[in-house]
Amino acid sequence: MAEIEKKPIKIMETILRDAHQSLIATRMTTEQMLPIVDKMDKVGYHAVECWGGATFDASLRFLKEDPWERLRKFRDGFKNTKLQMLFRGQNILGYRPYADDVVEYFVQKSVANGIDIIRIFDCLNDLRNLQTAVRAANKEKGEAQVALSYTLGDAYTLEYWVEIAKRIQDMGANSICIKDMAGLLLPYKATELVGALKEAVDLPIQLHTHYTSGVASMTYLKAVEAGVDIIDTAMSPFALGTSQPATEVMVETFRGTPYDTGFDQNLLAEIADYFRPIRDEALDSGLLNPKNLGVNIKTLLYQVPGGMLSNLTSQLKEQGAEDKFYDVLEEVPRVRKDLGEPPLVTPSSQIVGTQAVFNVIMGERYKMATKETKDVLSGKYGATVKPFNEEVKKKVLGEDAEVITCRPADLIPDELATLESEMAQYKQQDEDVLSYALFPQVATDFFKYRDAQQKKVDATIADTENGSYPV
């Protein structure tokens, strides 16, 4: 038997971003992460994902941390490893489309502060919403990775994925990621998809999935055999459930094969030992819900990503309608179909989920439509792969509603200068305007908190200098 050519599988580690976002609502602090960076830097990862996604919002809103400061600290610590972030195309890390000048400035500052690889996706797979970010990343000499938001449905054929991958290559992306946010990609489908993409394009292909439906490790095995270049994994204390397959397990799976990573399991064990008490603490405090650690095969039935499931549960709890959970789950695919069958990923997952909750609670479909549902139907998020349900569109928007067909950002005038003037009194670093652009209220609260902390420190120093000590 001919020897298979060696092709070590590359691994991107998610524990500093997606793993704790998926399991403990992005609540790991910078202080909890920094002590282990040195050991993580020695593993030999292709990259470590440590920024973007919900980390930006959670840092400011819940942890009272500056996300830019976190990134700079990671950059100082990771001397040999590339740092990666997740970026929502024209929505950046927020929930609305931004003007091109804000997108460009955000990419510029992300790279300047230490990001090497920017994974850029759009919740509708509308590539027009990715162009500005890809161009900006190329200009800043960052790696622009474009992600396909993987989903199922009539429109999402193998031809669709191949066609979109070719267009991504033509756009100037450096690599492609199959972003399977709900764990819908089955093992043999992965063989087929990866094989087709490898034939169609010359770019490296990365696979990202979640363990929610229970098939992810098998999917990785088949994808690696089919030629995928990089897989996303999480250190075992924050793996499985709604997170990724475990790093150590995948490393061991390929040991002694042509795909052997060469990683040191003893070093990985030390890193796992470091994170385990943090996981246990999250379990004890209720931050980590054991439900998120199990397998939920309903994901495959309703195509609802793990994060969206927990959102639906909390929305229903607030409304005192927890008994309507399965009604809402069944309503989700119907709403998704009405809205042009978008992939369910931030922010489309929240939009579809919230509308499904309203439809069930009100007892009449679209009796009340959210602003975001109206925006989707008006074309403000971009083009969907399938047409909207015309009846629903009429009911929500009225008969002669104006619908846009151009790239949504073409209608947004430059906004950086206006944002600068709005928050000038709080500005301590260039990046502050970007924090404000994404989350005006949350950032303002953070800036006030930061000022108060600094004044407290100044007061302490002043008192000490005067020979008296603060009580």
Layout of strands and helices, then pairs:
Elements: E1 10-13, H1 18-24, H2 30-40, E2 47-52, H3 55-61, H4 67-77, E3 82-87, H5 100-112, E4 117-120, H6 131-139, E5 143-149, H7 158-171, E6 175-180, H8 187-200, E7 205-209, H9 216-225, E8 230-233, H10 247-253, H11 265-285, H12 298-302, H13 306-318, H14 325-338, H15 348-362, H16 371-377, H17 390-397, H18 416-423, H19 432-438, H20 440-465
Parallel strand pairs: 1-2, 1-8, 2-3, 3-4, 4-5, 5-6, 6-7, 7-8
Helix pairs in contact: 2-4, 2-11, 5-6, 7-8, 8-9, 13-15, 14-15, 18-19, 19-20
Task: Give a quick precis of the structure.
This protein is an alpha/beta fold and 471 residues long. It has helices spanning 18-24, 30-40, 55-61, 67-77, 100-112, 131-139, 158-171, 187-200, 216-225, 247-253, 265-285, 298-302, 306-318, 325-338, 348-362, 371-377, 390-397, 416-423, 432-438, 440-465; strands spanning 10-13, 47-52, 82-87, 117-120, 143-149, 175-180, 205-209, 230-233. Helix 14 crosses helix 15 (348-362).
